[in-house]
Amino acid sequence: MVKKVVIIGGGAAGIDVLELLLRGKGDAEKMEITLLKKEREGFFSTCGLPFALQGRYSIKELNLFEPEFYRAQGIDFRTGTEVTSINLEEGYVHLDSGEDIRYDCLVIATGSKPFIPPIEGTNLEGVYTLSSREDGELLEAAMNAEETSNAFIIGAGWIGLQTAVAFSKKGIKTTVVGMFPYLLPSILDADMASIVKKWLDKDLAFMLGRRVDALRGEHRVKSVVVGSEEFPADIVLIAAGMRPTVDIAREAGIEMGESGGIVTDRALRVKKGKSYLANVYALGDCVEVIDAVTYRPRLSQLASTALIQARVVANKIRGISSSYSPCLSPTVATLSGLQIGSIGVITEVARRYGIAIKAGRAVKYTKARFFPERKLIIAKVLFEASTERLIGAQIIAEETVAERINELTLGIRAGITARDIWMRERCFDPSLTMVEDVIVDAALKAVGN
Predict the structure, then answer these.
(1) CB of 9 closer than 8 Å to CB of 82
(2) What domains sit in the chain, N to C, each tagged with a CATH number?
(3) What's the rounded mean pLDDT across residues 85-109?
(4) Going by DSSP bridges, is the β-strand pair 229-232/100-102 parallel, antiparallel, or unpaired?
(5) d(CA 286, CA 272)
(6) What is this structure's pTM?
């Protein structure tokens, strides 16, 4: 009997499920798979948009696979198609075309959308978000316009800062406005964020701990009001965070969590009433996860999170036992050549949930000090005070950050302590590492050794 699988959403989460089902050693031949997405393109990497705007490559190169690639494999891959409702009782989805499509298994991967703050003037021309190919193309055209000389970014997270770098590379005077008093407040402590700001100060202006009160202009934005001051602006990018896209799920009676995402169990099955539905799954930006340190619900809107969730969903659809563990959300990105990484909790989150910590910070080189191409590396580690178990880390350098964050992710999962860090054996070559790593120094400082 052929199993009908319907996937709502063609971003990273939905495509990951599709591709994993296609790799299933003949299982896909027993399935009739339909993927439905509002966008017109096939598989598009939105994560790459800021770097395209920086001139590293063209936006069209972010089209990883066209719809025909999937259609040629027997997938009913529909673009420009919106699901307007889900009927959980009868097992079908209703499309904007009026068609109903039945399913045996339903996958909800509806993603997220930019949060638009309640500010006067956000509907003016020249005000943008950055979450789709169309957004990127519009913003690129505005950046390249001769009259563009001043840009404002609302929000001091990854999207805002990486796009601010793109504006600056074009010679556009760029100002970042953030409500928090420091950059990247969801992944860095204030002392680590100050290092990032110092790196960016030469190219960008910052107004931190402040908020935009209004955008002014008749049809097109002309200025930004911050407090009692008004500043000229030809482009405004709203990068104030993303919110789960859950309207059709909520309207179907699916339960939402305190973070605004869809509630699921360890099998990523959705909940309606008192029960988790055996054949309806959700994953990606639209779902709530459980934090692996605090064990509290939150969002984890990362492509890397979606991939692991997709493995669970694809396995369950194929009849393979699988479950999703609490989430650590290892994060890494670059800003003007500076790599920033974070894993686990930051100090503010630990404080919020009553976790007493011991923290240590160290500065060293990535290679032996006599190598001329050595780079400085700054690491901060957080341990639970009572057990000295690693629960968080932040790293900043021009190289080797991603590798270290991945290593520390495994460490937190394994429950390593400060002593485990400084007593472990490490590889050493002066052209690649220091004999005693920066993480070791930070751990020793954290516990006072």
Answers:
(1) no
(2) 3-112+243-317 (3.50.50.60), 116-240 (3.50.50.60), 332-446 (3.30.390.30)
(3) 98
(4) unpaired
(5) 16
(6) 0.95
